[in-house]
Every structure is written in C-alpha cells, then in structure tokens.
Design brief:
Rossmann fold, 5-stranded parallel β-sheet, 10 strands, 346 residues, alpha/beta
C-alpha cells in the first residue's frame, strides 16, 4: 500500500477510489497477519487521541492500533484540557506530537484545525461525519461477501453522521445505498448531493424510500443506528414516535436477501432501533464491525504516516506474506488433487 496523497482524513473524500480500495485490501492483510508482521510506521512517534465525546470503540481501536504500529499514545479528554481555538491547539500539538485523532461535536472544529496542521489529523467522529466507522463497515462487507461492487445496503433510521459517511464512501466503491429515514430526520442535503456525484463516479445508486420494508427488499445488508446520536439524546424523548416501524427486527430482516447481514455501529439501545433477537442472530455482523475498526484504522494510519523506505519494506512484508500463503494453498491443493487421482483404483 502506497502513502496516501492526503495527510488528513476528515470525511473520506480526501481519498481517491484506488487508494480507498487498496486501503481496504491492506486492512484485510493486516488483520490476517496481526501479531506476526506489523508495519512499524509509528516507531518513535506519538499520536494524540483527543476525546470531546466519550468513546469505547474509537478509543480502544486507535490506542491499540497506534501501539501495534510501534507508536506511543497520548490520551486526552476534554476535562483535562482548557478550551482553546482549534487553530491554536493544533499549532501547539504539532510541536510535540506527530499526529492527532479528534472525536468532537462540530465538524467545523476539524476544518479549522487542518488550516494550520502540518501533521495528520483524523476525524474520530463529528456531528456530521464518521468516516473511520465507514471504513470498518466496508471492510466488513468485503469480508462477508468477497466483493463490494454490486452489493446493496439499506440504512434504516436517523439520517445522521453514520449515514452521511456511508453515502460518501460506499457508492464510491460500487455499493448501492437505500435509505429510509422519517420526515424531519433526513440526511443533510448538501452532503447528499456530494454523495450522489461520487456515486456516479463509482457506478452505484443512492435511493430514498418512505417505507423501511421497501428499502430493505432484496438487499445484502441492513444497517441501523441509535435514533438520537451522541450529544442529541434529549431529542429522543420528543421524537420517539417518528421512528415507529423503523425498528430492525426479524420481521424486517425477512424482506432482505436470504444471506443478508445486519449492521450497527454501536452502542445500541436494544428494544428501540434493534431487537435483542437480531443482535444475537447468526446473520448479525455488529461485533465484526467493531473489531474491524482496529484493522481499518491501522491501514489508514499506515497510509497517512508512511514516509520512508523502512515503512515501505515493513508494509510490503505484510503483502508478501499474504501472497506466499495463497501460493502455498494452491500448491497444497494441486498436490492433494494428484494424490487423490493416483490413489484411484484403475
């Protein structure tokens, strides 16, 4: 995997189609080779993880990922720091650390930060976008189905940051997106227009549905999220009735393809947007998605931080190991076939 042309990852639009495809392939290779070959692109480097919103998956996946890539983690939460303008904060931080992951509220904070950033800045989540989650989602689809192009994913629920990132990234790689959101909970119009342009580039479609059952008909994956995103929990008390009929349950799953999987970025509110039965269903991919945050983000950090021939060598070792395994498997299969043939009675 080559170094990404961008040094920042705020919405996912910074990465072109080839880079995004290669990033996912490399993430899968990293997952398969975890613990045996790890590209040490962060050796001698410190990455600041800044949390203005609480986190489990983002905190653990980035902390473990940085360490497995040879780096050090500086974990900062909002209560430990004084309020500063983003432009000032990044100019302080880049004199001490080599990269920043920020989980924040207003997306504008990230945009203001990168105007002065000379080190990588990664969006760990904002009110408008959750691109690292979308990377893990695409990796999960790739694992489950062996390909992305031609798949159909239906998102049912609140038109939030998770849907925004799916709209921007999935159709760009050929995944059709169906979405069903209640009135008043539709995705952002401006982001949707950008996503439609990218969908044309990816040869995919984005379709809006008024009925969740129609949206999930024949799809390969059903995706949902909490009906009130982090920071907007009070709204759930007033708009609960808006989501009547939008719960992902066994009955809704029955309208999808027979091999369809169910996805959720977590955390979830069981009994609201999703049932316990679906969480434990054999076709639930929820916890695979969570685990894939680690591998997708490691691949992202390799692409952002790679800078020298040693990094190239370490990353190439991962890919070469995968090629050797494929060669060994094919050789073993060929020998087994010959043995089986020779053992037949004439």
């Amino acid at each position: 995997m080559q170094k990404l042309k961008t040094i920042h990852f705020l919405t996912g639009e910074e990465v072109n189609q080839h880079e995004l495809s290669e990033l996912l392939k490399f993430a899968l290779a990293l997952k398969k080779e975890r613990g045996s070959i790890e590209p040490q692109v962060l050796t001698g480097k410190t990455v600041a993880l800044i949390f203005e919103k609480p986190s489990l998956r983002t905190r653990v996946s980035f902390a473990v990922g940085v360490q497995e890539l040879g780096g050090h983690v500086l974990d900062l939460v909002q209560a430990q720091t004084k309020a500063e303008d983003p432009e000032d904060a990044i100019r302080v931080l880049q004199g001490m650390v080599h990269g920043v992951m920020l989980r924040t509220f207003a997306h504008e904070v990230l945009e203001r930060m990168v105007t002065h950033a000379k080190i990588p800045v990664i969006n760990g989540l904002s009110n408008d976008h959750h691109p690292c989650q979308a990377l893990a989602d695409l990796l999960t689809l790739q694992e489950r189905f062996g390909h992305l192009r031609g798949l159909r994913l239906a998102y049912v629920g609140d038109g939030n940051n998770v849907l925004h990132s799916l709209l921007l990234l999935a159709p760009f790689l050929g995944v059709d997106i169906h979405y069903a959101c209640p009135a008043g909970h539709q995705p952002n119009d401006e982001i949707l227009q950008r996503a439609r342009v990218r969908a044309l580039q990816g040869g995919a479609q984005i379709r809006s549905f008024a009925n969740p059952k129609a949206a999930v008909s024949g799809v390969h994956a059903i995706y949902t999220d909490v009906w009130a995103s982090m920071g907007f929990e009070k709204e759930a008390e007033t708009h609960g009735e808006d989501f009547s009929g939008y719960q992902v349950n066994v009955e809704l799953l029955g309208h999808a393809a027979p091999t369809a999987i169910v996805m959720h970025c977590l955390p979830m509110l069981k009994g609201s947007e999703i049932t316990q039965e679906i969480v434990d269903h054999p076709r639930s991919a929820l916890f695979d998605q969570a685990a894939n945050r680690l591998h997708a983000q490691k691949a992202l950090m390799v692409g952002l931080f790679r800078s020298n021939t040693r990094d190239d060598h370490d990353a190439q070792n991962v890919q070469n190991a995968q090629k050797r395994k494929v060669h060994v498997d094919k050789t073993h299969l060929g020998r087994s076939t010959k043995i089986a043939a020779s053992s037949k009675t004439p």
